[in-house]
């Protein structure tokens, strides 16, 4: 595990270095007399990647005091769009690149998983794939058939276009229009 973590860290630092060296003239001013990096590096996109990028950005800043790393969320699609238009130097994406995005250069920094979470006061310990499908499609809207407690299910789902939702739909072979959510969130922090 530690070997994988080191690989992840080195890959992102390498990516940060490449981003700083390739910043546009307006956001990056390299000293003619020094090889020291300076300027601002903007990373935008996936809220899943953002906490890791922010921590690594802090370390990078401590090693390069003339560099500021600005990490902004907004979803993988924003990361792609901002990297393409130059609004961001690096786009953070928590999914595979789509066919129309394959012209971009990507660096895998980690693998992540998606989990189903129930309230801590809920006695449910496990859900089958079919129960999850039934909950998210509105066929199951009460906990009674699962744990005999008569209580409504409040479904919290990710907003359309979010990578977590795309992966969830792909795994359960669902379409977004099949989903019956009580609450729709954007960033992971909202969840």
| Uncertain regions spanning at least 5 consecutive residues | 1-33
Decide which structural class fits the backbone.
alpha/beta
- Average pLDDT score: 79
Sheet having the most strands:
3 strands, parallel
Radius of gyration: 20 Å
Task: Explain how this protein is built.
This protein is of the alpha/beta class and 191 residues long. It has helices spanning 2-21, 50-63, 76-85, 129-136, 144-147, 163-172; strands at residues 39-45, 67-73, 90-92, 156-158, 183-185. The strands form two sheets. A three-stranded parallel beta sheet has the order 2-1-3, with helices on both faces. Helix 2 links the parallel strand 1 (39-45) and strand 2. Helix 1 (2-21) packs across helix 2. The protein is elongated and about 65 Å long.
Quick recap:
With 191 residues, the chain is an alpha/beta fold. Helix content is 35%, strand content 12%.
Which terms would index this structure?
35% helix
Structural topology:
Elements: H1 2-21, E1 39-45, H2 50-63, E2 67-73, H3 76-85, E3 90-92, H4 129-136, H5 144-147, E4 156-158, H6 163-172, E5 183-185
Parallel strand pairs: 1-2, 1-3, 4-5
Helix pairs in contact: 1-2
